[in-house]
Fold this protein.
Amino acid sequence: MAEARIYKRPKSAMQSGKARIDEWVLDFAPAEAKKPDPLMGWSGSGDTRQQLQLTFPSSEAAQAYAEKHGIAARVHKVPPKKLKLQAYADNFR
């Protein structure tokens, strides 16, 4: 049985806008460990599900997909955002 995790896509540090942060992502857990290639030294494995990322509009849709296809999925909830409101003058206290 395949294992996966469902999480909300985080905002990138290089991203100022809010594009694609409302998507939920289903990532598969690695089925086998990566091992170095003897010729080139690159790490890789025969597990092709590691390359797959499915996006959904909500966590419920992602959970429904996982249940339909027999995937054991864990949902990682998003912690609430805490805004620290400050005035510019607070820098000089």
Notes: Helices lie at 59-68. The CA atoms of residues 42 and 67 lie 35 Å apart.
